[in-house]
Amino acid sequence: MPSVLETLRERGFVQQCTDESGLQELLAKKAVNFYCGFDPTAESLHCGSLMPIMAMAHLQRAGHKPIAIIGGGTAMIGDPSGKTDLRKMLTPDEIGRNGQGILGQLQRYLTLDGTKGLFVNNADWLMPLRYIDFLREIGRHFKVNEMIRAEAYRQRLEREEGLTFIEFNYQLLQAYDYLLLNRQQGCRLQIGGDDQWSNILAGLDLIRKDQGKQSYGLTFPLLTTARGEKMGKTAGGAVWLSEERTSPYAFYQYWVNVDDRDVERFLAYFTFLPMDEVRQLGKAEGAALNDGKRVLAYEATRLCHGEEEAEKAKKAAEVFVGGDADLSAIPTTNVERDAFAAGIGLVDLLVKTGLADSKKAAKRLIEQGGAYVEGVAVSDVNHVLREDALKDGALLLRQGKKKYHRVVVD
Hints:
Elements: H1 4-10, E1 16-17, H2 20-29, E2 33-38, H3 50-61, E3 65-70, H4 92-106, E4 118-121, H5 123-126, H6 131-137, H7 144-147, H8 151-158, H9 165-168, H10 170-185, E5 189-193, H11 197-211, E6 216-220, E7 233-234, E8 237-238, H12 248-256, H13 263-270, H14 275-282, H15 289-305, H16 307-318, E9 332-335, H17 337-342, E10 344-345, H18 346-353, H19 359-367, E11 371-373, E12 376-377, E13 384-385, E14 394-399, E15 403-409
Parallel strand pairs: 2-3, 2-5, 3-4, 5-6, 9-15
Antiparallel strand pairs: 1-6, 7-8, 10-13, 11-12, 11-14, 14-15
Helix pairs in contact: 10-11, 12-15, 12-16, 13-14, 13-15, 15-16, 18-19
């Protein structure tokens, strides 16, 4: 049976790893406490966050203990990694609400019961820090000339916007997170996206200098689709893990509609199917590859929203390929009849139903031929819908090939 590190590598999770043979030996010898951080910048994570979540789940299934950190303290500063300008400053109340929403989503994939896994907020130890004491204890271990060679800082320093002093502190605080978890929880491994590599190395170095101990880091590739798009982004906006922001049906449809070239890769990343089955499904060609897409959509939706919602989404999708399913499973928005009596613009309706995240996006969708009313493409951005467009008090909209939404008149 392959080790968990071999499993992660086989499934494509490993981009960089410090002392891979040493980590392999450690993971095989004992249960390891490991951590990954999540920015509480919204009340929900999106599909792009599934990479670290699934890696954490593989490690936990192999007997290791996850520590999920919500960056309540570091979010007060903002991580400059991969950003061209200063991140929006959040209030403590916003961070608290966002953290609770994210915890609920992480618990669908991980056991965070305080014993088999932990959920912590780094605001608990970062907010009370005394600045001068922190600089004397932690800051003395960092050299500015080494820090500015880090990719995240170097890119920002080369831009006109520059790098603010508050952001420059971020690496110290993340490194301190790792040090504190090493001291208090025996944490030996940090995982994260490859844009976090320099921050992870800073934490390893700080632990070595402060504790004289070896620790480890592992990063995942930064995902884009075969079309070159950012993972979890669509014409209608981000694909969220929250059912309030992205319905289970729309979530299912996202996976059904992935590029053919992404099917095998995404089955390996975002399901727990055995790799033999993943390769079998992924090597199909033409229409047969749709079976792999449906398996991917079902498994990803089941993990995120549960088996019942996955079944409903699957059956709803079958309506449009000749199956027999309950239309109520399709995302639905109620609109007052008076709106249709007066005439409601298609642009406004696309925004109201969430098929577009702004009027600008709705107009672009229409102009590109991706907006349909009852199966008919509409190319006029000024198109107005009235009562005669309704069928039995309802209307079926479509974005692109397969993303449907029902409008029901109150």
